[in-house]
Design a protein that fits this description.
Its cofactor is Zn(2+). It comes from Meganyctiphanes norvegica. InterPro entries: MetalloPept_cat_dom_sf, Peptidase_M13, Peptidase_M13_C, Peptidase_M13_N. There is one protein chain. The chain is mainly alpha-helical and 308 residues long. The protein has a domain of 209 residues: Collagenase (Catalytic Domain) (3-Layer(aba) Sandwich), CATH 3.40.390.10. It has 11 helices and 5 strands. The chain has a 3-stranded mixed sheet with strand order 1-3-2, covered by helices on one side. A two-stranded antiparallel sheet has the order 4-5. The longest helix is centred in the C-terminal third of the chain and has 29 residues. It is globular and about 65 Å long. The structure holds zinc ion. Zinc ion (ZN) binds next to helix 5 and helix 7.
Length: 308
């Protein structure tokens, strides 16, 4: 899935009209050097590696505070131990926290990470149709890849070094497109609290959501080419493409108290869940086509924003 979605992102880069050739080649170079870690590193199953890693960690009986101090000292020491080592951006220990239900793009390592913890539930199940998986974890995979090319990721190159690889005129076009997203999301009102999103704060995540769902969509189209059309779900009259969008919508289905919503609007770089779905889908011509939304209807506004 990661390969299909990554290819879909590279296709977007190849076909972008607003990007000059020199910047495009650098963008492709960066994209192709993204390292991905899926589920868990194989070293976790190597007893000798694990024993070596935990060497020196002592637990004593019965004293919770002392256990905690031992663990903190051990962790701090393990970090200082590698301070003078040459940095290895693919070190398995960087990708070792596998039980978390989250995913990550790291700008300095230029890597994406999908720990075992997220490969379940609404996100992924090997036994179900792939349109559901592409709408679920696929949406997240595309999101993380796109982070490498959001307002912050774009400032780093394929080695993870802070360097400006953008030709001036293309950078101006990027900033205009990001401005569209900032203003669009800044005009979304969260009805429970009557407040608007801070589009400037959330732009990176919004750019990643918009690009991510599109890459997952086209990644799935590529997957079908290799594997054939899939059966529908019994009792539902939706097409596979519609089921892709519905599965993507399920990913951020949730409910929050107004107090939390208010707090998150101030500090969270992610838009509230509803807008993480409706925003990208309102901007998607593919979504409107698959659901026959007339132009000018709430989910198919005439003015759309698109970065990637
Ligand atoms: Zn993100």
């Amino acid at each position: 899935m990661v390969n299909y979605i990554h290819e879909a992102f590279n296709d977007i880069l190849h076909n972008l009209e607003w990007m000059d050739e020199a910047t495009r080649q650098r963008a492709l170079k960066k994209s192709k050097s993204i390292y991905s870690s899926i589920a868990y590193p194989p070293e976790l199953l190597d007893d000798s590696k694990i024993r070596e890693y935990y060497d020196g960690l002592m637990f004593t009986q019965g004293d919770l505070l002392q256990q905690y101090r031992n663990l903190t000292k051990f962790t701090t020491h393990s970090i200082f131990k590698i301070l003078r080592d040459k940095v290895n951006k693919r070190d398995w220990r960087i990708y070792g926290k596998v039980a978390v239900v989250n995913a990550h793009y790291n700008r300095v390592y230029n890597s994406i990470r999908f720990p075992a913890g997220i490969l379940q539930g609404v996100f992924f199940d090997a036994e179900r149709p792939m349109y559901q998986n592409f709408g679920g974890i696929g949406f997240i995979i595309g999101h993380e890849i796109t982070h490498g090319f959001d307002n912050k990721g774009k400032q780093f190159d394929g080695n993870g070094d802070l360097s400006n690889w953008w030709e001036k005129e293309t950078e101006i076009k990027f900033l205009e497109k990001a401005r569209c997203i900032i203003e669009q999301y800044g005009n979304f009102t969260v009805p429970e609290v009557g407040l608007n999103i801070n589009g400037k704060l959330t732009q990176g995540e919004d750019i990643a959501d918009n690009g991510g769902v599109k890459e997952a969509y086209y990644g799935y189209k590529k997957w079908i080419k290799d594997h054939g059309e899939e059966p529908l779900l019994p009792g539902l009259s939706y097409t596979p493409s519609q089921l892709f969008w519905i599965s993507a919508g399920n990913v951020w289905c949730g409910k929050s108290r107004p107090e939390l919503l208010k707090k998150l609007l101030l500090i969270d770089t992610h838009s509230p869940k509803r807008f993480r779905i409706n925003g990208p889908m309102m901007n998607s011509e593919e979504f409107s086509r698959d659901f026959n939304c007339p132009v000018g209807s709430p989910m198919n506004p005439k003015d759309k924003c698109k970065v990637w």
